[in-house]
Design a protein that fits this description.
It is built from eleven helices and two strands; from the N terminus they run ααααααααββααα. α4 packs antiparallel against α7. By secondary structure, it is mostly helical.
């Protein structure tokens, strides 16, 4: 039986692997991206599940702004793809130093882009629930939840970019493990931040542990904390420990026009697709919002 292996060095040398090996390579290289997307979705499941016991009001407050959060998060993924494609091509051509230069520039640009989305979120947060048609009773909580989620866009952008960079270097294990860690941390932080007290899943006599009782704001802060920790770990491993992309020489961090131009060509169609899809979800929320809190909560759980 033919042995199936993932040999990145052979690909870089110009060898053409058997068809079965090519299929395996595609699947294995795609796995971290799939897991990252699942991680983001699981965090939404976690927040919805752990907030759901508070009541329909809490779930609906999240649901009013959830589709807009998906839009902003999707834009970060599109922007990251514009840079990871370039790094993948450079690594495949054996130009590792050029790949590290593009990575430097991508970190700067992703931080700036995430910051711009954050500022946009700060501006629209007080008005967004009303624009969508949410009930008056939901608007304040929804605005504050959305604002905290916007703060998390910077670490989310770094996680998106770093996951792609690890893939480009053929490292599937690191981003896969860290995206799972993000979900575990999200559960732990949520348990402390959402509830006033909770029972940890420890065998033996159950003990009530005290929590902060922040409700939906605790869910947003839990996600922010988990993503920030994972983003910091990913950056450290990428810049200091990655065999291919760890920084070895001093160079400029200033973004170059050629890199931005290629990134725009790659990301442009993806931006358009993401905006159209997300606007569809937002339109559904606008249609459902006038039906009341229960309808918004049900729609939020179903769409997620």
């Amino acid at each position: 039986m033919q042995q199936v292996t993932l040999d990145i060095d052979a690909l870089r040398a110009g060898e053409t692997p058997p068809r079965l090996n090519r299929a395996l390579i595609v699947l294995m290289l795609a796995f971290p991206a799939v897991l990252a997307e699942l991680s983001n979705t699981l965090m939404q499941y976690i927040d919805a599940g752990m907030v759901g016991h508070i009541g329909a009001h809490a779930t609906a407050s999240i649901g009013i702004v959830e589709s807009t959060i998906w839009l902003l998060d999707g834009l970060l993924g599109c922007a990251a793809a514009g840079f990871t494609v370039q790094v993948a091509q450079l690594i495949g051509a054996g130009r590792d130093r050029d790949a590290r230069q593009v990575m430097r520039q991508s970190l700067v640009m992703m931080t700036l882009f995430s910051g711009c989305l954050l500022l946009l979120g700060v501006v629209i947060a007080p008005h967004l629930p009303a624009w969508i048609g949410g009930e008056e009773s939901l608007r304040q909580d929804a605005s504050q939840y959305f604002l905290i989620c916007c703060i998390s866009l910077i670490p989310v952008g770094i996680v998106r970019l770093a996951t792609g960079m690890f893939q480009c270097a053929g490292d599937m294990r690191t981003p896969s493990i860290l995206n799972i860690v993000a979900c575990v941390l999200d559960v732990c932080f949520n348990a402390f931040l959402i509830n006033e007290s909770f029972i940890p899943p420890i065998p033996g006599r159950p003990l009530h542990w005290p929590g902060f009782g922040l409700g939906i704001f605790g869910a947003a802060l839990g996600t922010l904390s988990a993503q920030t920790i994972v983003a910091a770990i990913m950056l450290w491993i990428l810049l200091r420990r990655s065999p291919t992309l760890a920084l070895r020489e001093s160079d400029s961090w200033t973004p170059r026009a050629a890199v931005l131009r290629v990134s725009g060509k790659v990301s442009g169609p993806m931006f358009l697709e993401r905006i159209v899809i997300s606007l569809g979800y937002m339109a559904i929320t606008v249609i459902v919002a006038p039906l009341g809190t229960i309808a918004v909560a049900a729609n939020s759980l179903a769409i997620t």
